[in-house]
Amino acid sequence: MRHFLRIFLSRPIPLAGLAIFAVIVALALLAPLLFARGPFIIVGMPLLPPGAPGLLAGSDVLGRDMAVGLAYGARISLLVGITSTLGAVGIGVLLGAVAGYYGGWLDDLLMRVTEFFQIIPNFVLLMVLVAFLQPSLSSTVIGIALVTWPQVARVVRGEFLSLRGREFVQAARTLGMRDGAIIFTQILPNALPPIIVVGSMMVGSAILTESALSFLGLSDPNLLSWGSMIGGSRSAMWVAWWTTVLPGLAIMITVLALNFIGDGLNDALNPRRRR
Amino acid sequence: MNRLSYIGARLIKTVLVALTVVLLSFFLVRLAPGDTATVMAGQAGFADEAFMKSLRAEYGLDQPVPVQLWKYLSAVAKGDLGSSFVRRQPVLDVILERLPNTLLLNGFALLVAIAGGVAMGMMAARRPGSAMDASMTVLSMVFYAMPQFWLGMMAMLMFSVWLGWLPPFGLETMGADYTGLARIGDIAVHMILPGVTLALYFMASYARLTRTAMIEVADQDFVKTARAKGLREGQVARRHILRNALIPLITFAGLQSAILVGGSVLVENVFSWPGIGTLAYEAVTTRDNPLLLGIFIVTAVLVGLFNLATDIAYSIADPRVELGR
Amino acid sequence: MEPLIAIQDLVVALPPGADRAHAVDRVSLTINPNEILCILGESGSGKSLTAHAVMGLLPRGVSASSGHIRFGGTDLLALPPSGLRKLRGRDIAMIFQDPMAALNPVITIGRQITEQIRAHRTLPQKEALALAAGLLAEMGLKDPKALLKSFPHQLSGGQRQRVMIAMALSLSPKLLIADEPTTALDVTTQAQILKLIKRIQAEREMSVLLITHDFGVVADMADSVAVMRYGRVVESGATNDVLGNPSHDYTRALIAAVPRGESRLPPPAEGQPLVQVKGLTKRFSRGGFFSRAPAIVALDDISLSLSRGETLGVVGESGSGKSTLARCVIRLLDPDAGEVLLEEADIAHMRRSALRPLRRRIQMVFQDPFSSLNPRQTVGDILIAGPKAYGEDLKEARRRAADMLSLVGLSPQCLNRLPHEFSGGQRQRIGLARALMLKPEVLIADEPVSALDVTVQAKVLKLLDDVRRQMNLAMLFITHDMRVAAEICHRVMVMRHGRIVEQGPTKDVFAAPSSDYTKALLAAIPGRQAR
Predict the structure, then answer these.
(1) Residue A254 within any structural domain of the chain
(2) Do C310 and C236 belong together in one domain?
(3) Residue A208: closest CA among chain B residues belongs to which residue?
(4) In this model, does residue B36 exceed pLDDT 70?
(5) DSSP secondary structure string for all residues of C311-344
(6) What one-character DSSP code corresponds to residue A187?
(7) Range of the structural domain that residue A130 is part of
(8) Are C483 and C347 found together in one domain?
(9) CA-to-CA distance for C488 and C486, rounded, in angstroms?
(10) Does B128 lie at the interface with A, CB-CB under 8 angstroms?
(11) What ipTM describes this predicted complex?
């Protein structure tokens, strides 16, 4: 553990990512305290540029405070990103572990299912799911989790398949360990590194996916997210660049920070000391 | 297993998979509360029961589900994908009208992504850990982190609005009625912005993959042998390292087959490119089930064919692989 | 006589963070024309890096920081890369340990050979191919024309190494460097390749620098030998001198550690067999659903018996089925037919629930010290895992674990350490301790010393033998090395292609083998001729 932290914290890129992400999390958590009235309140004339009195980031097409919108948008992005990833990882690890360990028809079944998800364009499937479950926060989270768990399952299955043949797992079987104990105490701890790396990257892509859905108007109409901010200001793009540029930058910086963290995790967890 | 029988087996498998897709989508689509009749009635402004009943009868929506399914399957087998509720045109026609545009755009984007990505990856792999390597990595990570639709809008803002170099919308200039070479040129110019936007996102993946593959291959024994034989570094890089590093790239390209058809929904939306992506969005929001199902089926078949092509390419590139495993 | 290569005070530095500052520490060696020099050493001795330094093929991050390597008037370490490139493949050639990894998997054999030829000579492809065919024939390969069009994965290990040698000789180099060229090959193939190298050396009057860890190979092949340890040359000279009259302690220890290949154990007392295997058969199917390829028969009607207090050796090359046999006996694999009787109970086809209580009576020591211990568990947890699975009291188990560690020669303080802190030999001891924790009656040792250095090997073998005697175990000992079998087994069983070819008391089988295959295996033992 100490070894891992030493490597992870020693490189500038993951450190920067961690710092940026921490700022965004703080912003998201503090939003209701800082901006108690919420992002839908109209505070002035529409399309005022950043730097206008009292408006750090300007106002949008309806005259709402962009800065408040950005802060509240962070809450949605992080919430959706993290919960949907947790869901996808939960499902993926469970199914992938069982398929990878027991093999046989269970594995075949899982492979067919993941193939199905590879054939259907994921985003179209997601649109269908969200539209048909009625767009809301929970349908977004469920939809993204349902569409992305196969990625995790494939990685977990691969890890379990290869670890199952390792001699220390064979030894555990000869020692009389039961299957459950072998899966949880022997294989899973050794399979964690790639799962953690994939998971951290997935939070970033879940945030991107959520923003795409809300851009297209397929998300909870009662919640303001960065994507819906961009979608709502398409008509004003030519004259008020801040209405689209700022939310987009917010998305990009958040996802970039997460990817930096993921990259750092990858290096720290992989014992390849070759340079 | 020889190649011909393998191709035959795969084609059968593609059909089976398409069938599964049809079945699953058919039921998926029926999960939604409310159906096309409700949506259409809403759009028309009428909400009365009698009108909706007549709509349902007209489209066969009042029949029991197994009957609907059977009717649909037998129609599909004959190549009839039904009629779009909203557009009142045969689904197949609507799809075929839009499909080439998407394939053109996505194909262009993938080519640019692969060419650019491999070049970037090769440059980064030449000296791992160097400034060039780190900057390539960060650059590709930046593109990977941008929302596609936003990148498209930014590109549009810069190149269409501010600089005026490229057209912002559509497949071709409206009302200009170009033909022949001029038309091709016109479409090509319209394709640049959306195509490059799409490509930048994929380029990041290809760059990382190429870099990792080349670094791993460079450490293998046969590269040492190549040097021990007295080959020039350039020959070693091309004939030994790159040749072997391309193999995982082909696998990855195969995994992206679904993207070829459905991965451009956002970019098409932003640039008003008349393709399958915008068609799918339309079908989802108007609950146009036949159209949606039709899109799924066509996608499944195309992806199956494309996967087959990549598998064959893979078996040619890597002689260790036996088709039919 | 003017030496062909003179290495003077070579120092090769390792990147910071390695366990030593230098991989090669002021090494001086000479190779004369028309002679075979062996560098002998265990892992980490720097022998391989010395050879790589001559070719300028040191890995990234490792470089020669000082010294000279003189070859015909030029200092190789001072040459620019272009000059070195011209020498490689033409004046000095090198072959490596694993021929499968050393050949490009996607280019045909023919093109790989002609590539080298045409890198140094202008020759049309057709003529280069003809040259290549001639070389392959010279190496004893049949049907060279077909081989030229094949890919490496279609050839056997021995064929691949012959191709590598052919490639190396294609421009008639003055020096051939061979880095452990036979370690990855089967025993019988090893002998053939070594004979080949000796023949071509004599025919072409070439010099050979042969890296090896096996003293038997030195005895068979070398004119001179240099013994290396921790990056230094400990002793060097003519082979007969060094072997017959070693002056350094380490050389003496190395020679003493090599198993003789002569059985010292008395034939076992006839006792009631504890384990009886009857008609054991195991098939592996090939390919997926559509495949019509015939199944591989890994075990074909195997029968054996094993009594308490005796060690039965199962000897065979790769693909003989010896590992499959071990795994079937311990029920890691389910056999297709036959019985495995543990004192009347047939464990081969038992249901898992009935099998569980019997499992503790048979335990296994595995081959690879680097993958047989869970890298994320402490030694203590690894050792008590077995007792824990059977519901024993954990405190009691930990106490026994400490005792067990002492039994295998490790300090009880190791309980809290992680596997990566231990060496290969120490890890095998931990693996043995783990197996003994359940107080088994039968111990299966699957190539337990194959991955260990010779000096460590000898100690672990002695430990296994002591434990067997102390605990009156019935031991099934799997190995590919006849010499090791002779050292520790009362009876020996030779397997080939899933069948038993010969079995009997070790002394008898070694002194008077009845099957041709056993005779070939014995003849292939390096060093046997020289004695």
Answers:
(1) yes
(2) no
(3) B147
(4) no
(5) EEEEE--TTSSHHHHHHHHTTSS--SEEEEEETT
(6) I
(7) 2-31+66-273
(8) yes
(9) 6
(10) yes
(11) 0.86
